[in-house]
Amino acid sequence: MKRPIEVKFYDGILAEGRCAWIVPDQQQGIVLKLDEDVPVQVSAADFYFSYPDMAYIGGVGGRKPIIELPEERRIEFLSKAPHWLGIKYKDIYHAIWKFERSPILIFFSMIIEISAVIVILKWGIPYSAKQLAKFLPEQTLVEVGNRTEQQLIAQTQPSTLPEEQQMRLKTLYEQKIAVGKPAKIIFRQGGSSMGMNAAAIPNNTIIVTDELVKISGTDEEVLAVLAHEQGHLVQKHSMQKVISNLGVAGLFAFVTGDLSDVVTAYVVVLTDAGYS
User: Fold this and answer.
1) Which of 75, 74, 76, 276 is nearest to 195 (CA)?
2) Of 80, 168, 172, 270, whose CB is crowded by the most CB atoms within 10 A?
3) Do the Cβ atoms of 210 and 190 come closer than 8 Å?
4) DSSP conformation letters of 42-53
5) pLDDT for the residue 27
6) What is the pTM of this model?
7) Which DSSP string corresponds to 84-146?
8) What's 247's DSSP letter?
9) What per-residue confidence (pLDDT) applies to 170?
10) Is residue 143 pLDDT above 90, yes or no?
């Protein structure tokens, strides 16, 4: 049964609301009566509003639902909107209102949101970074690599290793590890910025510090490090880690072409990736 509903009506002229009743109308709308008694019959003095002219605003917190009407008129419900009210999206608004007033539903929604954030951080971003790193254009990799190489060269000093030793290690690397597509090998003094380290840069360059070479007992140990870095180049692991660290900001940087933050993060990743 479609019973009359008591509401408060603002006529757009007076600031004070007036007690009124609304009943459904067969012509897809409502009839509003200002009489204090429950309306039984529709009279000529009543207001008629069609559903297309109404803007429904759902209740939030302690505020009840509202209907905005033409000519700055408004209907405020004293409780929830009646079931027979045929305004579009009314049921959705009411469900949201009911949801945000339920402590149990709020608690479970918080659990779901926290779980979603954990899933995104633990699996979503790393997976997205891995896929993005695979499909980055070669030009982007070269640009990031060149700028990273410049910064690492500026932070380190020229190598003091004998030229003969450098050439021997490069030759062994090309013969045993990177057959077909060898990377450019650069020897530098790591100093306080890199120390005993090696870094694979996405422009197909590997930087090896003197400190790492000197602490290695044999050429084979240096080649093992170079093989490790070669794997990073092939799998683009460093790019994946940089994109993961930057998250959405990293994705935005690659889309817009502003790679300054990417280069900075890349240098930090490389200098922090030391060897035991």
Assistant:
1) 276
2) 270
3) yes
4) --TTSEEEEGGG
5) 66
6) 0.53
7) T---TTHHHHHHHHHHHT-HHHHHHHHHHHHHHHHHIIIIIHHHHHHHHHHT--HHHHHHHHH
8) T
9) 93
10) no
